[in-house]
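Field log, afternoon session.

UNIT: design team B
ACTIVITY: writing a sequence onto a fixed backbone
BACKBONE:
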């Protein structure tokens, strides 16, 4: 297999200069050449208008201006990946904290399993349902099939074909980008072949409590409203999810899947 570099795109608002400096420092230390992508701003009038008219999405969220702008920023990167012609691209948000292992994951596509749509490089330090047997092992880290909810869209690799497929399906996003990609309740989750790197080579700064010492790493996103009773779209969806959960439990019982906490290691 050819050793193809994975281009690293970083979403960053023009006004968030300190966050960009945070990313640049890591790039200089690790030898990563970031491609900065100007983020869509939640203060834009068009974004504010969309937020004002937002209705509950399939997952029960009422999207804030910040969530809409964030999703549109990710879609902006997806378009760049499609236009690049590259097989894969890596998407990062500007509060990312990178381990020493990240450059190796960006230096080659060899570690990506065949048919991979999205490979998650970060962790929320929570339990996720993953395969017990890794598809591949790289840099002493397992690349596990991801079967259950594991939120966060701060660092992931996405294929060009998947980006092209998602763009028309997310023209008017009604739920946050990480919920759409990494929540098993999402209609887009089942068709995607998702993987999780474990331990993860990336994490959001707030999860390391870096935002307590660095004000610029605090989230400036506004909260989304969440309707507690908007969990299932209809009876068919309810029954389908019950069957899927039961099947997942059986696979766990027979040792094919497990729920495990995904850790972050800095080296």
């Amino acid at each position: 297999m050819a050793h193809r570099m994975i281009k690293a795109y970083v979403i960053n608002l023009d006004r968030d200069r300190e966050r960009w400096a945070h990313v640049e420092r890591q790039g200089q230390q690790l030898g990563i050449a970031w491609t900065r992508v100007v983020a869509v701003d939640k203060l834009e009038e068009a974004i504010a208008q969309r937020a004002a008219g937002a209705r509950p999405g399939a997952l029960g969220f009422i999207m804030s201006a910040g969530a809409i702008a964030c999703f549109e920023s990710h879609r902006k990167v997806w378009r760049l990946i499609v236009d690049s012609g590259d097989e894969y691209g890596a998407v990062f948000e500007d509060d990312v904290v990178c381990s020493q292992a990240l450059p190796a994951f960006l230096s080659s596509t060899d570690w990506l399993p065949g048919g991979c749509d999205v490979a998650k490089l970060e962790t929320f330090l929570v339990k996720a349902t993953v395969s017990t047997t890794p598809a591949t092992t790289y840099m002493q880290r397992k690349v596990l099939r991801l079967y259950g909810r594991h939120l966060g869209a701060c660092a992931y690799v996405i294929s060009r074909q998947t980006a092209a497929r998602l763009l028309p399906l997310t023209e008017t996003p009604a739920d946050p980008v990480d919920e759409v990609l990494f929540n098993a309740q999402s209609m887009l989750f089942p068709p995607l072949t998702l993987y999780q790197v474990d331990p993860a080579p990336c994490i959001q700064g707030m999860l390391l409590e870096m935002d307590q010492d660095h004000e610029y790493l605090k989230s400036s996103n506004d909260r989304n409203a969440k309707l507690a009773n908007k969990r299932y779209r209809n009876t068919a969806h309810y029954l389908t999810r019950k069957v899927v959960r039961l099947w997942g439990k059986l696979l766990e019982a027979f040792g094919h899947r497990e729920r495990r906490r995904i850790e972050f290691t800095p080296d």
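LOG NOTE: Residues 65-84 form the longest helix (20 residues).
NEXT ACTIVITY: expression trials, pending approval
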